[in-house]
Amino acid sequence: MGFFTFIVVCVILYYLVYAIALCWVDCDIGLAIAEKIGKKLEKLNGKVIWITGASSGIGEALACASAKYNVKLVLSARRENELNRVKSKCLELNKNLTPHDILILPLDITKTNLHKSCFDLVIEQFGNLDILINNAGRSQRAVWENVDIEVDRQVFDLNVFGVVNLSRIAVQYFNKKKDGHIVVTSSLAGILGAPFSCSYTGSKHAIHGYFEGLRNEKLGCGIDITLLCPGPVFSNFLQESFTETAGEKFGRTVEQDDKRMTAERCAQLSLIAIVNKLDEAWMGRFPLMLLTYAAVYFPNISKKISKIIGPKQFQRLRDSKMTVTVQP
């Protein structure tokens, strides 16, 4: 066997092993390796962590998972009663925590004029902030051409501009202490072009642009940026999703037999990515990891796969069923 042939065989075997591995794992290979041999979650001990969108779903699961490691928590969302429920749950999970260790800070992330005063309350309570987890956001289900432009504005106000503004305040603080970690819950839709969620998909692509640029700006400054990209997760996200009409919610619920990752598993993987300071982490059940790798590393092949799958089957991969009615 010649040297060139040997190299070709090695490359083929490399990608073959990758493809086989992606059929078995529920995250990207880097994250899977970090879970096995990376830093342990005990590294979170004593950290001050602010989680937005903490009243349900992934945010609630992140709060509960973090609480096990003796962190100081700031929990934000619009629904104060739900935040108090999550706080009680966290205190029950870790008897070492006291009520003073968890600050309930109600916040509508779109009210950017309130961000600085809320940030000041965090510093007043704990004297520090180590990790900001921007988890607030909503998905969307709608046909592209039917979407009112006001919906696009509302999606970007929530999923992009609120996140960017709060993160800027945090980065200004992190600059002073030359240490800090910005985490943003994006989505696999920020990598793939998800049909029937185009306003949402656009907002997540924008998030990647903003925070990948920020990461490159802050190289060597002690500030880390992690983008979390989950696929379908068991939560109330469908019920709360934007539609084509401003002020309307999609109102559909997920079914127990849907092919989704649990919020608890998503939170566990997210914390592993955070502790190991991964730049980006992908999470999702088969075949989403294969499709994501194809989109990033083999875009031309990915486009052909998308044409074969078609928009309706793509939607079934996300929602386990057709959730948006499409006219023939």
From TrEMBL:
The record's section on InterPro entries has: NAD(P)-bd_dom_sf, Sc_DH/Rdtase_CS, SDR_fam, SDR_family_member_7
Q: Which UniProt keywords apply?
A: Oxidoreductase
What's one Pfam family here? adh_short
What domain of life does the native source organism fall in? Eukaryota
Q: Does the keyword Oxidoreductase apply?
A: yes
Task: Give this protein's Gene Ontology molecular function annotations.
Answer: oxidoreductase activity
Q: Does the keyword Aminoacyl-tRNA synthetase apply?
A: no
Q: Which family does it belong to?
A: Belongs to the short-chain dehydrogenases/reductases (SDR) family.
Q: What is this protein called?
A: Dehydrogenase/reductase SDR family member 7
